[in-house]
Specification:
The protein is mostly helical. The protein has one domain: Peroxidase, domain 2, CATH 1.10.420.10. It is built from seven helices and two strands, in the order αβααβαααα. It has a two-stranded antiparallel sheet with strand order 1-2. Helix 4 crosses helix 6. The longest helix has 13 residues. The chain is globular.
Length: about 140
């Protein structure tokens, strides 16, 4: 998983419907995703009822309007909103990075790392014509 990908989760909101399965039917047995912090689940359920499609949740509670390293503190506490956030803790390299950012004062390397990631991303060749696609929804292939 790309560290750059997850940095986008430090700013913004998401609809409850995006995470409903994690709260109400994770394995198809009416259960909650066990990787979520057990103290965070009741808060999420109080905001997001099963059929709720309109309520917005902060992707980075406490600083969802600020581009900062707080996202990593939430992930380290198992309070990442998305499965992809929790996946960062399943890999040695990304888990170590999350821990570094969460436990260091003001994300010791966050801004420098982001700068380097943007430079690398700027070197990606754009796919045109039938070689690529613009997705209508970022998590679903058209």
């Amino acid at each position: 998983m790309s560290i750059l990908h997850t940095r986008g989760h430090t700013v913004g909101t998401s609809h409850c419907s995006t995470i409903a399965i994690r709260l109400y039917n994770f394995t198809g047995k009416g259960d909650t995703d066990p990787s979520l912090d057990s103290y965070y689940v009741p808060y999420l359920k109080s905001k997001c009822k099963l059929s709720n499609t309109t309520t917005l949740l902060e992707m980075d509670p406490g600083s969802f309007r600020t581009f900062d390293e707080n996202y990593y503190t939430n992930v380290w506490k198992r309070r990442g909103l998305f499965v992809s956030d929790d996946a960062l803790l399943n890999d040695y390299e990304t888990s170590a990075y999350v821990k570094l950012q969460a436990q260091s004062d003001q994300g010791s390397t966050f801004m420098k790392d982001f700068e380097e990631s943007m430079v690398k991303m700027g070197q990606i060749r754009v796919l045109t014509g039938s070689a690529g696609e613009i997705r209508r929804h970022c998590n679903i292939i058209n």
